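Lecture 7 notes: from sequence to structure.

We start with a single chain of 234 residues. Read the sequence below before looking at the structure.
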Amino acid sequence: MSSACFTDCTTTITQVMALGPDWMDPMYLLSGSGPFGNFILPAVFTIVFIESGLLFPLLPGDSLLFTAGMLSSQPDPFAPLWQLLIFIPLASFLGDQSGYWIGRKFGEHLQNRPDGKIFKKEYLEESHAFFEKHGPITVIICRFVPIVRTYAPLVAGMSRMDYRVFFPFSIAGALIWGAGVTLLGSWLGQYQWVADNIDIIFISIVLVSIMPGVIGAIKGRKASKKANSTPRVK
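Now the structure, written as tokens:
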């Protein structure tokens, strides 16, 4: 092997080894200068919009906002806090509005729709019961309740809630939840202990955010097995 080839191989290996720690560091991947830096804010906007009313309740909600706020207080953030405080509440409000009008226009069809992997009638029933118990303020309260926050605007539309009542509650909920949870994450992210352990906190948040989906899937499988094992009465 020539000395030039050996030198080139050594240089390549050194570069790969230098990149290795960065590519294994979630803080680098989620930073403004990381490979996904330009895509994180649009992704956060899309996820919040979908989870706020488009019948897909298994996306991370509170944990996503908290993490985004926490990252905004770190060096080289993917977006400054002021942008998060504009785009996250906006995405939440637009998703809420979409869910309301979907429920208003297609409520009867949705009630007769069979259960799927994502859409389940029990979600509608739980949200409806939540709505009946708390009234219009549910539009705000539900923001902090996984699954219910996705279906509450849908139920509001299906029940023909007066849009003049729904609209201000929708704005208030988007601001309180979208800006409030984000600000909480940003505030906690300024503490040195949080900054020193942000990798562990990030992984913990991811695990917590997927737990409701995992628990729901386990309960669904148990219920399905129980239903299939129950003898049918002829």
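DSSP finds eleven helices and no strands in the chain. Keep this in mind for problem set 3.
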